[in-house]
Amino acid sequence: MDYDVKNYIKTDEQTDARIKEGIEKNRKGNFCIKTDAKTVKVKLKNHKFRFGGNLFMLDEIPDKPEKNEIYKQKFKKLFNMATLPFYWNATEPEPGKTRYDIGSEKLYRRPAIDLCIKWCSENGIEPREHALCYDHSFPDWLKNKPTIEVKKHLEERMKQISQRYADKIPTIEVTNEMFWGDGWITDFYLEDDYVVDCFKMAEKYFPNNELGINEWSGDIWEPYPTPRNKYFLTIENALLKGARIDAIGMQYHMFYKKEEYQKRTEKFYDLKQLLSVMDLFAAFNKPIQITEITVPSFCNEEEAENLQADILEKIYSTWFSHPLCEQIIYWNMPDGYAAFAEPGDMTSGENYYYGGLVRFDMTEKAAYKRLYHLIHEVWTTDEQVECVNGKANFRGFYGEYEVEADGKKYNVMLDKDEKTVCL
């Protein structure tokens, strides 16, 4: 296998310049701290931008409790957002019997939502809902049920989730993967207005939340960027019919076998193509969320892990540079605990790809170290600023800051709408 990133990532001087300028223009601002102090120390503590991962392995390794603790430490060290598993067949496996409570029966890769919420709250992580209306994860007890009955149960599900979590989870991902050709659970999924109906129902129960739509990688990034793209048309149609779609989710799973990987990822690793696709969907003037990312290393050899890191650095920088992007979410942080495989079986399911940022033993891969370096050491602000006429002016990344002046520390939010702070 070729391990030279230049043979995977396609770019040019103009694209590289746009990415560099985009980060400077779209992720940073000129700020002013008003104070009587002579100097001010400013340090970014948390990005306004959301970098996340799925939290599916929270306390999910009962035979190795020490790995649970390492998982949690690595997660909160790197991320400020967590995707929570609201798969219906996991939250309500039997009619009326839900698994939201912390003490709920264990289900692999589906930690109880209350447990996730508690951990996120204690660690400064913003939770994100995933798969509110995802037919492939609808429970089997809905099979062969008439659409009117499915909708009735779905409305009750939304009502329960709203009552428990609407004030705790800002982003509600309403629909997920609308283009399956087979394998659906309900006939409701085949309805012409499935997306519209789901969003109108969600708006009723989540009036103050950001409502997102989400779709599979290949239907977004591979085709030539045109308004005839079927995901684009799906969103446009739903909006025209009155659906309130607040954010556009885009998956990015590179689930291709090792022998075809380089050829099949040509479009996905073309940075100009990525920007063009985002520019296309920018026509809706909605925030863009990169919701599920898998970039494989295929093994734990050094060269393979370095290639994974090199690719992630390029694509994360590209997404981060775009003005409408607001979230980037890696999918499985650890190797060996992905879908459709037994823990540690690296020959089957999504484990085959070695798509984690840490190894099965929870040691950091080059990809984890590279993303940490980018997010917390390159895309950060940490400096001492001289005050002139009672003002400390500086340019920094948007987010939550610790400001120190005259020996006192203050926590302040600095973003596009809050650029001046008086101490």
Write the topology of this structure:
Layout: H1 13-26, E1 28-34, E2 39-47, E3 50-54, H2 65-78, E4 81-85, H3 88-91, H4 113-122, E5 126-130, H5 147-165, E6 171-176, H6 194-205, E7 210-215, H7 230-240, E8 247-253, H8 261-264, H9 271-281, E9 288-294, H10 302-321, E10 325-330, H11 366-378, E11 382-386, E12 391-397, E13 399-405, E14 408-414, E15 420-422
Order of helix and strand elements from N to C terminus: HEEEHEHHEHEHEHEHHEHEHEEEEE
**Shape by Cα distribution:** globular
| CATH level 1 name of the largest domain | Alpha Beta
Q: State the helical fraction.
A: 25-40%
> What are the low-pLDDT stretches, counting only 5+ consecutive residues below 50?
none
Counted up, domains total 2
Radius of gyration: 22 Å
Structural class, by secondary structure, is: alpha/beta
Which strands sit side by side, in order, in the main sheet? Answer: 3-4-5-6-7-8-9-10
What does the main sheet amount to?
A: 8 strands, parallel, barrel
Instruction: Calculate the mean pLDDT score and round it.
Output: 97
The CATH architecture name of the largest domain reads Alpha-Beta Barrel
Tally of helical segments: 11
Q: How many individual β-strands?
A: 15
The CA-CA distance between the termini, in Å, is 56 Å
Strand content: 15-25%
Subunit organisation of the chains: single chain
CATH topology of the largest domain: TIM Barrel
- The CATH superfamily label of the largest domain reads Glycosidases
